[in-house]
Amino acid sequence: MKQILFIIFLLFTVIFAYVEKRMVEITFNELTELQQLVDIGIDLDHHRTHSEVHAFVTDEEFQRISQMHFGIREIPNQAKLYFEELRRNTSNSRNPMEDYHNYNELTTFLQDIAANYSEITNLESIGQSVQGRELWVMEISDNPGINEIEPEFKYVANMHGDETVGRELSLYLIQWLVEGYGSDPRATDIINNTDVFIMPSMNPDGFENGSRYNA
Fold first, then answer.
1. 15-75 — its CATH code?
2. φ and ψ at 32, to 5 degrees?
3. Beta-carbon contacts of residue 77 (< 8 Å; ≥ 6 apart)
4. Alpha carbons 82 and 162: distance in angstroms, whole number
5. Nearest to 198 by CA among 135, 112, 131, 119
6. Does CATH place domain 96-209 in 3.50.50.60?
7. What CA–CA distance (Å, rounded) separates 184 from 180?
8. Considering the chain, what is the average pLDDT of its residues?
9. Nearest to 157 by CA among 137, 134, 143, 186
10. Do domains 15-75 and 96-209 have the same CATH topology?
């Protein structure tokens, strides 16, 4: 299982090792013209209409698409703008962003769980992010660290830095499992009969920077 997680880490390191991209709207006349964008490796997001598509592009790609006679305009990153607004407006109040676990809080949360429930958990880092943050994986099992003949489940969250809900839900899942062991029949059955691996944040750099990408 550790080998699988390490391979996933390497793959996503390559996938997210981009310069910062911005979301744009690209307009065209015929759907067949989209193939030109695919051929040059543009990160298409989704179709809006039969003449419009959203994509994530670098500055260089923006210029190249403009020269190909497509219509193109930047779409403001509302998530990042909101993130930055919350960062600024913290006078006389608690920072609303602290309602989500930042990297240090997430690390403390996981380390506390590992210390308090050592008989059913195993916390390991499978590597570091571009900016040097640990990529934590929590194993939850009745025999953590032992390769048993039972189903294994892997949960990976926060692959895009600005997609944060799964990150928090994975922490809640960890908490529900360990606190329910021995008292909640469902949680107890899961831990006794499966090996669960949870990676709350594949992209901690992106989360800290309020960015879709990693650094």
1. 3.30.70.250
2. -65, -20
3. 22, 23, 162, 212
4. 11
5. 135
6. no
7. 5
8. 84
9. 137
10. no
How far apart are alpha carbons 46 and 25 in whole angstroms? 10
The CA distance from 43 to 40, in Å, is 9
pTM greater than 0.85 (yes/no): no
Mean pLDDT computed over 159-169: 87
Once rounded to an integer, what is the mean pLDDT over residues 61-67? 91
Three-class SS string for the chain? CHHHHHHHHHHHHHHCCCCCCEEEEEECCCHHHHHHHHHCCCEEEEEEECCEEEEEECHHHHHHHHHCCCEEEECCCHHHHHHHHHHHCCCCCCCHHHHCCCHHHHHHHHHHHHHHCCCCEEEEEEEECCCCCEEEEEEECCCCCCCCCCCEEEEECCCCCCCCHHHHHHHHHHHHHHHHCCCCHHHHHHHHHCEEEEECCCCHHHHHHCCCCCC
- Each domain of the chain, given as residue ranges in start order, spans 15-75, 96-209
Contact 24, 73 (CB under 8 A): yes
